[in-house]
Amino acid sequence: MTLLDLTRRVETGMPTYPGDPPVAVESHADFEADGYRVSRLELGTHAGTHVDAPAHTEPDGATLDDFPVDDLRFTARAIDCRDAGPRGRIGPDAIPERLEPRVDFLVFRTGWEDEWGAERMADHPALAPETARACADRGLSVGIDALSPDPTGGDGVPAHHAILGAGLFIVENLCGLDALPTDRTFDLYVMPLRVDADGAPARVVADAETGLIRRRDER
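Structure (tokenized):
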């Protein structure tokens, strides 16, 4: 098994979506004063690598606690969209016409993980509304290596409404996507904090070998 960690480290002062709470990891107790160490963590539910539940944008949407943990294990495909460019729109033609029936998650690799913390971080590519609707129609949750599948600072969040409105998930701020295969499926595990909320920071891990192993087993 080859596990790939696709998760941003949570640390003080890390980049956040504009207007979201800042992140701080501070000492609450230390060995010198207390004989043990405890840290205090302050952050919003959408800090770093995180998963959006439908309740994030849908008034009647489900919260994370409404889903069993098995719903956060996916069969995924990675899509290379690095040619979209700053503020570009990823069209529905980026989605393969034929996906294996069990695929239920698409990872959009825009290359924007390299802009993490940079001045133009918010100028990332985004899904065109029709692309998000196509994902929703096919029951595909979505991950992206950027702040959002919608334009940051744009007018509205149509991709969020399409995907979360269909009861699916969005995972944002992924990293390490260069290591993912783009020619076959892989297992993806999204493990958020267990909190009944609109979203939560998550450890996101891909098993890069499962797709290949399954294809061999099916022969």
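The radius of gyration is 18 Å. Helices lie at 31-34, 129-137, 158-165, 210-218.
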